[in-house]
Amino acid sequence: MLKLSLRTFIVILFVISIVPSIAQEDDSQDVESIPTVAIIKYGNLAPLNLAEQGAVDMFSAYGYEDGENIEFIFAEAEFNIDVLETIMEAVIEREPDIIIAGSTPFSQLAVRLTSEMDNPPIVLVNSITSVFTTGIADSACVKSDNVSGSQAQPPFELILTKISEFDPDIRRIGVIYS
Protein backbone atom coordinates (compact mmCIF):
# COMPACT_ATOMS: atom_id res chain seq x y z
CA MET A 1 0.00 0.00 0.00
CA LEU A 2 2.79 2.42 0.88
CA LYS A 3 4.60 1.74 -2.41
CA LEU A 4 1.48 2.54 -4.38
CA SER A 5 0.96 5.74 -2.41
CA LEU A 6 4.56 6.84 -2.93
CA ARG A 7 4.35 6.16 -6.68
CA THR A 8 1.06 8.04 -6.84
CA PHE A 9 2.64 10.96 -4.96
CA ILE A 10 5.57 11.07 -7.41
CA VAL A 11 3.25 11.02 -10.42
CA ILE A 12 1.10 13.81 -8.93
CA LEU A 13 4.25 15.83 -8.22
CA PHE A 14 5.31 15.45 -11.85
CA VAL A 15 1.94 16.70 -13.07
CA ILE A 16 1.94 19.66 -10.71
CA SER A 17 5.50 20.57 -11.66
CA ILE A 18 5.48 19.88 -15.40
CA VAL A 19 2.10 20.54 -16.97
CA PRO A 20 1.64 24.19 -15.86
CA SER A 21 5.14 25.03 -17.06
CA ILE A 22 4.45 23.60 -20.50
CA ALA A 23 1.09 25.34 -20.69
CA GLN A 24 2.60 28.79 -20.12
CA GLU A 25 3.02 30.78 -23.31
CA ASP A 26 6.34 32.34 -24.15
CA ASP A 27 6.20 35.06 -26.83
CA SER A 28 9.89 34.58 -27.64
CA GLN A 29 9.36 31.02 -28.88
CA ASP A 30 8.15 30.03 -32.30
CA VAL A 31 4.47 29.08 -32.25
CA GLU A 32 5.34 25.85 -34.04
CA SER A 33 7.90 24.75 -31.43
CA ILE A 34 7.05 21.85 -29.20
CA PRO A 35 8.25 21.27 -25.65
CA THR A 36 11.35 19.18 -25.18
CA VAL A 37 11.74 16.95 -22.13
CA ALA A 38 15.04 15.27 -21.31
CA ILE A 39 14.73 12.17 -19.14
CA ILE A 40 18.13 11.12 -17.89
CA LYS A 41 19.06 8.32 -15.53
CA TYR A 42 22.18 6.90 -14.00
CA GLY A 43 21.50 3.31 -14.96
CA ASN A 44 19.01 0.55 -15.60
CA LEU A 45 17.33 0.13 -12.21
CA ALA A 46 13.68 -0.72 -11.61
CA PRO A 47 12.89 2.49 -9.64
CA LEU A 48 14.52 4.68 -12.29
CA ASN A 49 12.82 2.77 -15.11
CA LEU A 50 9.43 3.06 -13.39
CA ALA A 51 9.91 6.77 -12.83
CA GLU A 52 10.91 7.26 -16.48
CA GLN A 53 7.87 5.32 -17.70
CA GLY A 54 5.65 7.17 -15.23
CA ALA A 55 6.77 10.52 -16.62
CA VAL A 56 6.13 9.43 -20.20
CA ASP A 57 2.74 7.98 -19.22
CA MET A 58 1.77 11.18 -17.43
CA PHE A 59 2.56 13.29 -20.47
CA SER A 60 0.61 10.83 -22.59
CA ALA A 61 -2.37 11.11 -20.24
CA TYR A 62 -2.38 14.84 -20.94
CA GLY A 63 -2.26 14.30 -24.70
CA TYR A 64 1.46 14.67 -25.29
CA GLU A 65 2.88 12.08 -27.71
CA ASP A 66 6.57 11.85 -28.59
CA GLY A 67 7.26 13.22 -32.05
CA GLU A 68 3.80 14.77 -32.40
CA ASN A 69 3.50 17.54 -29.83
CA ILE A 70 6.45 16.85 -27.53
CA GLU A 71 10.04 15.70 -27.99
CA PHE A 72 11.63 13.35 -25.50
CA ILE A 73 15.39 13.03 -25.08
CA PHE A 74 16.40 9.85 -23.28
CA ALA A 75 19.89 9.41 -21.87
CA GLU A 76 21.46 6.85 -19.57
CA ALA A 77 24.97 6.72 -18.09
CA GLU A 78 24.94 2.92 -17.62
CA PHE A 79 26.38 3.46 -14.12
CA ASN A 80 29.50 5.08 -15.57
CA ILE A 81 30.16 8.14 -13.43
CA ASP A 82 32.86 9.31 -15.83
CA VAL A 83 30.30 10.15 -18.56
CA LEU A 84 27.77 12.06 -16.44
CA GLU A 85 29.04 15.52 -17.26
CA THR A 86 29.42 14.73 -20.97
CA ILE A 87 25.85 13.42 -21.14
CA MET A 88 24.46 16.37 -19.18
CA GLU A 89 26.27 18.92 -21.34
CA ALA A 90 24.94 17.22 -24.50
CA VAL A 91 21.41 17.31 -23.05
CA ILE A 92 21.69 21.00 -22.09
CA GLU A 93 23.02 21.81 -25.56
CA ARG A 94 19.70 20.60 -27.00
CA GLU A 95 17.96 23.26 -24.85
CA PRO A 96 15.25 21.15 -23.22
CA ASP A 97 12.37 22.85 -21.45
CA ILE A 98 12.41 20.24 -18.69
CA ILE A 99 15.11 17.90 -17.38
CA ILE A 100 13.89 14.94 -15.35
CA ALA A 101 17.01 13.72 -13.59
CA GLY A 102 16.80 10.20 -12.20
CA SER A 103 19.37 9.54 -9.48
CA THR A 104 21.38 11.68 -7.13
CA PRO A 105 24.46 12.13 -9.37
CA PHE A 106 22.47 13.37 -12.37
CA SER A 107 20.26 15.56 -10.19
CA GLN A 108 23.24 17.25 -8.53
CA LEU A 109 24.85 17.83 -11.92
CA ALA A 110 21.67 19.16 -13.53
CA VAL A 111 21.14 21.60 -10.67
CA ARG A 112 24.77 22.74 -10.75
CA LEU A 113 24.95 23.20 -14.54
CA THR A 114 21.64 25.06 -14.79
CA SER A 115 22.08 27.24 -11.69
CA GLU A 116 23.98 29.99 -13.52
CA MET A 117 21.84 30.01 -16.67
CA ASP A 118 19.74 33.10 -17.47
CA ASN A 119 16.73 31.05 -18.52
CA PRO A 120 17.34 27.57 -17.11
CA PRO A 121 15.16 24.57 -17.90
CA ILE A 122 12.97 23.16 -15.17
CA VAL A 123 14.90 20.46 -13.34
CA LEU A 124 12.80 17.76 -11.71
CA VAL A 125 14.89 15.62 -9.40
CA ASN A 126 13.72 12.07 -9.09
CA SER A 127 14.73 8.98 -7.12
CA ILE A 128 16.90 10.95 -4.71
CA THR A 129 17.49 9.60 -1.22
CA SER A 130 17.77 13.09 0.28
CA VAL A 131 17.65 16.39 -1.55
CA PHE A 132 18.88 18.10 1.61
CA THR A 133 22.04 16.11 2.39
CA THR A 134 23.09 16.15 -1.29
CA GLY A 135 23.00 19.94 -1.53
CA ILE A 136 20.18 20.03 -4.08
CA ALA A 137 18.00 21.96 -1.63
CA ASP A 138 18.51 23.50 1.79
CA SER A 139 14.84 22.99 2.66
CA ALA A 140 11.55 22.51 0.83
CA CYS A 141 11.46 26.24 0.09
CA VAL A 142 15.18 27.05 -0.14
CA LYS A 143 16.45 25.83 -3.51
CA SER A 144 16.97 27.10 -7.04
CA ASP A 145 13.75 28.48 -8.53
CA ASN A 146 13.93 26.07 -11.48
CA VAL A 147 14.25 22.97 -9.28
CA SER A 148 11.48 20.73 -8.00
CA GLY A 149 10.95 17.02 -7.52
CA SER A 150 10.76 14.35 -4.90
CA GLN A 151 12.80 12.14 -2.65
CA ALA A 152 12.67 8.38 -3.01
CA GLN A 153 12.55 7.91 0.74
CA PRO A 154 10.00 9.75 2.85
CA PRO A 155 10.84 10.46 6.50
CA PHE A 156 10.59 7.32 8.63
CA GLU A 157 8.55 9.23 11.23
CA LEU A 158 5.85 9.77 8.61
CA ILE A 159 5.94 6.10 7.58
CA LEU A 160 5.58 4.92 11.16
CA THR A 161 2.70 7.30 11.81
CA LYS A 162 0.87 6.12 8.69
CA ILE A 163 1.46 2.44 9.46
CA SER A 164 -0.04 2.79 12.92
CA GLU A 165 -3.04 4.57 11.40
CA PHE A 166 -3.68 1.61 9.08
CA ASP A 167 -2.99 -1.07 11.69
CA PRO A 168 -2.91 0.15 15.31
CA ASP A 169 -2.15 -3.39 16.57
CA ILE A 170 1.04 -3.82 14.52
CA ARG A 171 3.95 -5.09 16.63
CA ARG A 172 6.88 -5.55 14.26
CA ILE A 173 8.05 -3.60 11.21
CA GLY A 174 10.91 -4.52 8.90
CA VAL A 175 12.60 -2.02 6.63
CA ILE A 176 14.77 -2.93 3.67
CA TYR A 177 17.02 -0.11 2.56
CA SER A 178 18.90 -0.12 -0.76
Could you tell me the radius of gyration in angstroms?
17 Å
Helicity level:
25-40%
Q: Hey, roughly how much beta strand do the residues contain?
A: 15-25%
Form type: globular
N→C terminal distance = 19 Å
For the secondary structure, the number of strands is: 5
SSE order, one letter for each helix or strand: HEHEHEHEEH
Helix count from the secondary structure assignment = 5
What strand line-up does the widest sheet have? 2-1-3-4-5
Q: Stretches where pLDDT falls below 50 for ≥5 residues?
A: 19-31
Structural class: alpha/beta
- What does the average pLDDT come to? 80
What can you tell me about this protein's structure?
The chain is of the alpha/beta class. The protein is 39% helix and 16% strand. It has a 5-stranded parallel β-sheet, with helices on both faces. The two termini are 19 Å apart. The model is unreliable at 19-31 (pLDDT under 50).
